[in-house]
Amino acid sequence: MATTMTPAEAPAGASDSHDSPVAIVCVGMAGSGKTTFMQRLISHLYTHPDPTHPSPSVTKNPGAPPYVLNLDPAVHHVPFDPNIDIRDSVNYKEVMKQFNLGPNGGILTSLNLFSTKIDQVVGLLEKRTRPQPVPKAPEQSTADFMAGKTTPPVPQPPQVKHILVDTPGQIEVFVWSASGEILLSSLASTFPTVIAYVIDTPRTTSTSTFMSNMLYACSILYKTKLPMILVFNKTDAQDAEFAKEWMTNFEAFQSALREEEEGGSFGGEGVGGGSGYMGSLLNSMSLVLDEFYKHLSVVGVSAMTGEGMSDFFKGVQEKKEEFERDYKPELERRKREREQAKVASREQELGKLMKDMKMGGTGKGPRKTEAETVSDAEDMGDDDDMAVDNDFDSDSDGGERADGGLEGRYQQALQDSQGGPKDEDFSFARYLHKANIG
Ligand SMILES: Nc1nc2c(ncn2[C@@H]2O[C@H](COP(=O)(O)OP(=O)(O)OP(=O)(O)O)[C@@H](O)[C@H]2O)c(=O)[nH]1
């Protein structure tokens, strides 16, 4: 039976977070069953008004439909109807052709292009996750009123409680790319966000594949810094109890390791194939990962049969509360730090720019008024052309300088400080323009 490992500790004030929306990002190796799992999540949410409850709705009251995003640009067919599909904005095959890229480069560039639209995506999500206004009955005609007819209110789309995100099977392309980080951090700065790491259980029964999967999950947890649920999928084909036991009972893992060693699973004697080396590495790894296991919820599901889905949503609820309690303050602290660093670097750049501009002039005559920022200088230009000419131009007649005057020098200084546009920027901009996505 599927159970979550982390005990549900309901923190103070958690009750009001019960109804707020949560984003679930499905990550997993190719073929682990992410897309099938997504399809199962959607159907579970449609039929279960309380998704943490195993029995579906017995009344006519339907569940709240989720908002679904597909971020896999290379997928041929998705068995559900996503609200936002990366394939509608970016043509993956065209990207590969235009930039002369292979499949992984194509996925990465498509994600980069899509991430330029993240503000619009988050805007849409915010709109749909807000409590919907109570529908107003439309104006009634006098004839209807006299006849005693009532006009039914126009139905509103229900408030979205779950945002589901499907990602490419090439995990590293999503998790380790700048665009993946932009997409995840934009989501996480707006909604509690949980990573569902989907694992192919039948292919994880040996200690070495299990450990490889755990190390991968560990790297994703530390890279994304978001709460994670380990979803052992395909439990109809292989029960996930062994994995839960290995994660909670170190001795059980060791005894499985010994059995495999004795069965010669790690190859023969000699360099690289020595069972001693593999066995002791796996042993040490399981000790190291002990701390990591404590931060996870573990659930066994079958995306095929629907088994374990209510346990998964219990795990989501726990992780959502953990996000609010532990991750959100940390995210906000990092955001503040980034903003402070950005302001500091902008001020430094502006200081440099102003210095360059002052040095670029002839320095003839005293300044009439001191411009402290570029916008000050431009404002002064708007109000009093002569003042600007006197300040920055050598021409006392106020005419245009050969190098384009203040604006020309400002552009030049900006280009110098940023290294100027590169050829790739132009081709990228051309592509955006051509593909109508810029
Ligand atoms: N027995 C069983 N098979 C499953 C289950 N979930 C998925 N599968 C099968 O696993 C295969 C891969 O499933 P997908 O959902 O396409 O996997 P994916 O992770 O989205 O694959 P990529 O798109 O390549 O990343 C398919 O043949 C599914 O039918 C399950 O719960 N049980």
UniProtKB/TrEMBL annotation:
Q: What GO molecular function annotations does the UniProt record carry, in alphabetical order?
A: GTP binding; GTPase activity
GO CC field: cytoplasm; nucleus
Subcellular location field: Cytoplasm; Nucleus
Compositionally biased spans, kind Basic and acidic residues: 323-358
Q: Which PANTHER family match?
A: GPN-LOOP GTPASE 1 (PTHR21231:SF8), XPA-BINDING PROTEIN 1-RELATED (PTHR21231)
Q: What does this protein do?
A: Small GTPase required for proper nuclear import of RNA polymerase II (RNAPII). May act at an RNAP assembly step prior to nuclear import.
Quaternary state and interactors: Binds to RNA polymerase II.
Protein name as catalogued: GPN-loop GTPase
Q: What is the lineage of its organism?
A: Eukaryota, Fungi, Dikarya, Ascomycota, Pezizomycotina
